[in-house]
Amino acid sequence: MNVHEYQAKAILKEFGVPVSRGVPIMAASEARKAAEELGGPVWVVKSQIHAGGRGKGKFKEATAGDKGGVRLAKSIDEVEQFSKEMLGATLVTLQTGAAGRTVGRLYIEDGAAIDRELYLSALVDRATSRVSFVVSTEGGMDIETVAHDTPERIHTISVDPATGVMPHHGRAAADALNLKGDLAKGMAKLLTQLYAAFVAKDMDLLEINPLIVTKDGQLKALDAKMSFDGNAMYRHPDVAALRDEAEEDAKEIEASKHDLNYITLDGTIGCMVNGAGLAMATMDIIKLYGEAPANFLDVGGGATKEKVTAAFKIITADENVKGILVNIFGGIMRCDVIAEGVIAAVKDVGLQVPLVVRLEGTNVQLGKDIIARSGLNVIAADDLDDAAQKIVTAVRDARGKA
């Protein structure tokens, strides 16, 4: 689960991390009051969407201007003007894709006197099974670009969960960022605060880009990005309450209600599979034969008929889906349950695109018999390779007739 920048900063502030004062607004009519509350003389008006690269982004609407999704205002009138232009407009960044995201919230923040921009993040390092800090002197830039062009400027600091952050971690980060004296001490304190927040809130990622050194020699988190472990949200109702469903795919929201692991992708072949590994293999073989998956969907090992029906409805709700591949290997999952769910869903929502079903495992023959007796136009497949070829061929044939 992701949150907006202003929400992330509020969490950081709970743990003592220095952040600028700011006021979130949902309507342009709130802009003047927010600016007056902060006092100025310089304000930053920030679009709040769940995507990076906002400052370099462009709005689709001409009325929104061409100054990007993060703007420096030097008067209250400018704060109000920018707010009117940006709210409700569609911001396109490198992370949103061409469709962009509608800006429904803004964050009006105090301006900062910046001396240096640094990069700092915390993440779960799967190679070491530890939380690691990633730091770089190249703040304010896309970290992927830095990693590609100048990897020597990125430093990783691993933290042993048995000890937590120790003084040597702070020294290592300070050395990597060329921080001396009080700034080095400040970095040691900051790492302790960030680690405490990361662990306490079950985060997946915490990114501060940029972390700035101010003109008066202080460290401050000028931006903040957070994502949280969805499986741990039952422990954090305060964080769960921050969820902004307007920033999420409606199909993914619906899938979460049925405990389905679903992610929307850019292809045309909808997939329903049990098991994450098998789902990834299914997507790979679709790509191998020249088409692309429209989604990742793992119905899990103990799916019910109702769960399978819900999954099928979610797939067919995607207008980009031109064919569907159901690939089930029944261990705990029974093939007859899958068959019953697919038939129920097809009868409920109709079948407008080719459907290939490959079943193997527990009650496989019973599952195949249920589908065969259904009278539905379903293409049976014997194995994964056969299934992939058949759905790709069916989609291409349908495309050629269109």
UniProtKB/TrEMBL annotation:
Matching PROSITE patterns: ATP_GRASP, SUCCINYL_COA_LIG_3
Keyword Metal-binding: yes
Keyword annotations: ATP-binding, Ligase, Magnesium, Metal-binding, Nucleotide-binding, Tricarboxylic acid cycle
Keyword Ribosomal protein in annotation: no
EC number annotated for this UniProt entry: 6.2.1.5
Domain named ATP-grasp: residues: 9-241
Binding site for ATP: 46, 53-55, 109, 112, 117
Signal peptide, first to last residue: none
Protein residues bound to substrate: 274, 331-333
Cofactor binding remark: Binds 1 Mg(2+) ion per subunit.
An example Gene Ontology CC term for this record: succinate-CoA ligase complex
Coiled coil regions, renumbered to chain: none
InterPro entries assigned to the protein according to its UniProt record, in alphabetical order: ATP-grasp, ATP-grasp_succ-CoA_synth-type, ATP_grasp_subdomain_1, Succ-CoA_synthase_bsu_CS, SUCC_ACL_C, Succ_CoA_ligase-like_bsu, Succinyl-CoA_synth-like
Subunit architecture: Heterotetramer of two alpha and two beta subunits.
Cited PANTHER family: SUCCINATE--COA LIGASE [GDP-FORMING] SUBUNIT BETA, MITOCHONDRIAL, SUCCINYL-COA SYNTHETASE BETA CHAIN
Similarity annotation: Belongs to the succinate/malate CoA ligase beta subunit family.
The name this protein goes by in its record: Succinate--CoA ligase [ADP-forming] subunit beta
Species the sequence originates in: Lichenibacterium minor
